[in-house]
Amino acid sequence: MGNSKLTGATLVLGASSNIGQRLVSRLGRENVIATFNRTPVQNGLHFDARVMALSDLPIEPDQISNAVILLGDTILDSVASDQIRARALNVTALSKIIDQLNSWDIKPIFTSTEVVYDGTGTLYDEESPANPIVLYGQQKLEIERYIQANFSDYVIFRLARIYGDTPGDGTIFIDWAQKILQGEKIICANNQRFSPVYIEDVIDCLIAAIHGRLSGLYVLGGPVGLSRLECLEMLIEAFGSKLKHPVDLEICSILDFPAIEPRPLDTTVSSKLLETEIGIRFTEIKDVCERIVTQISNAADGEKQS
């Protein structure tokens, strides 16, 4: 395991993202230099990676111990629909950031993606060959390899689909729970599998990397592989007696959804290496579903009483 600098602040590039906001909160703002582009963050520095360099920011290299790279266009259809714009951010701009970090001798911690895998296998791990079938995955893999070619000490996390428990966070269980309460129809695929990972587990792993406990490439997913439908069924079960009406559910194939590129069908992963190296115990989806139902149900009851 490499030796990163352990003094100084953590540079969080893309701090307005769900992960970025949670990470800044957990680390403490006094220990972070946070950047944003469109969505301001408290005490953050504006940074448009497409037209600015890290050296344009009012920071000195000696202030920074390591850098967490969260920025980029992460929407698959957005990347595929405007390839020139997406490459300018996801590859060209990130390559320049990596070059600057290298010249400053700052360890990069990079969030990649499960869609570097083609979805034809199952239970991918660090030894599984990357073979992305979507452009977003290809761009992430290109940056992975660029980091590996230029650094001896780095961390790359291939992230599975992240879910949270904060109302309005846009993640899968929150969106479903809100639709269930409002009686909206849910169209859910039964033939795409993945390993959903709780956002706080992701933050735990990022903090372990920041503290120098990790070095190299890691797969970061939840403890079980499930289909979308199985995930929804777990949430419905968590509602229990709080469910006042049948769920308006239409089961379909993932192929029925409009998409510019075909999606990988099975990106279930194994995070055994992370479990071994830092002793993390990944959160069970059932526990988070119960917490989501309690929060959203209580909020709905409060609105009725007000």
Main features:
306 residues; single chain; disordered N terminus; Rossmann fold; alpha/beta; 7-stranded parallel beta sheet; globular; 13 strands; two-stranded parallel sheet
Structure description:
- The chain is of the alpha/beta class.
- It has a domain at 9-165 and 196-222 and 265-283: NAD(P)-binding Rossmann-like Domain (Rossmann fold, 3-Layer(aba) Sandwich), CATH 3.40.50.
- Helices cover 38% and strands 17% of the residues.
- The chain contains 9 helices and 13 strands.
- It has helices at 18-27, 76-81, 83-103, 135-150, 172-182, 199-210, 228-239, 272-278, 285-305, and strands at 9-13, 32-36, 45-46, 64-69, 107-113, 155-159, 162-163, 186-189, 193-194, 197-198, 216-220, 226-227, 249-252.
- The chain is globular and about 60 Å long.
What is the count of helical runs?
Answer: 9
| Element order: H for helix, E for strand | EHEEEHHEHEEHEEEHEEHEHH
Largest sheet: 7 strands, parallel
CATH superfamily of the domain at 9-165 and 196-222 and 265-283: NAD(P)-binding Rossmann-like Domain
Structural class: alpha/beta
Helix content: 25-40%
CATH domain class name of the domain at 9-165 and 196-222 and 265-283: Alpha Beta
- Might you state the CATH topology name of the domain at 9-165 and 196-222 and 265-283? Rossmann fold
Task: Give unreliable regions as ranges.
Answer: 1-6
Number of strands: 13
Percent range for β-strand residues: 15-25%
Multimeric organization: single chain
Mean pLDDT: 94
Rg estimate, integer Å: 20 Å
CATH architecture type of the domain at 9-165 and 196-222 and 265-283: 3-Layer(aba) Sandwich
Sheet with the most strands: spatial strand order: 3-2-1-4-5-6-11
**Overall shape:** globular
Alpha-carbon distance between the two ends: 56 Å
